[in-house]
Amino acid sequence: MKFLIDESVEFSVVSFLRSTGHDIIAIAEDFPSLQDADVLRFAVKERRILITNDKDFGELIFLHRLPHKGVIFFRLSKEDAGSKIEKLKLLLQTYAKKLPRFFIVVAPDKIRIRT
């Protein structure tokens, strides 16, 4: 799968996804300080699922109606890389086919899939 990792996500998440064979571009490595709207446009152009902690992407998509190719938004009370990696493992095993089409909110006790 192709992912674009926002600057707000820890680099160990990037390393985990790369180690499992996914095609990863990390904003922190390749485009530091890129504006959120430009990150989203790049994700669409490259057909990449965006992984972020930044709630501003929800506003860009739902309020401003910007297109996307899938978003995984972490909204965890414990914002550490280990928790995100565990949730990503679950997402990849259970919801892989939905990732490229939906806005997925990952909360501590549930996963919400929004169109």
Mean pLDDT metric: 95
What is the CA-based Rg, rounded? Answer: 13 Å
Unreliable runs, pLDDT <50, ≥5 residues?
A: none
Question: CATH fold name, please?
Answer: Rossmann fold
Query: Percent of residues in helical segments?
Result: 25-40%
Overall form: globular
Order of helices and strands: EHEHHEHEHEE
Structural class: alpha/beta
Largest sheet: 6 strands, mixed
Give the distance, in angstroms, between the N- and C-terminal Cα atoms.
20 Å
The second-level CATH architecture is: 3-Layer(aba) Sandwich
The number of domains is 1
Trace the largest sheet across and list its strands.
2-1-3-4-5-6
Please count the helical segments: 5
> How many β-strand runs?
6
CATH class: Alpha Beta
Query: Strand fraction band?
Result: 15-25%
Explain the layout of strands and helices.
Layout: E1 2-5, H1 11-19, E2 23-26, H2 27-30, H3 36-45, E3 49-52, H4 56-63, E4 71-74, H5 81-94, E5 103-106, E6 111-114
Explain what the structure shows.
- It contains five helices and six strands.
- It has helices spanning 11-19, 27-30, 36-45, 56-63, 81-94; strands at residues 2-5, 23-26, 49-52, 71-74, 103-106, 111-114.
- The chain has a six-stranded mixed beta sheet, with helices on both faces.
- The mean pLDDT is 95.
Note the main attributes of this structure.
115 residues, alpha/beta, Rossmann fold, 21% strand
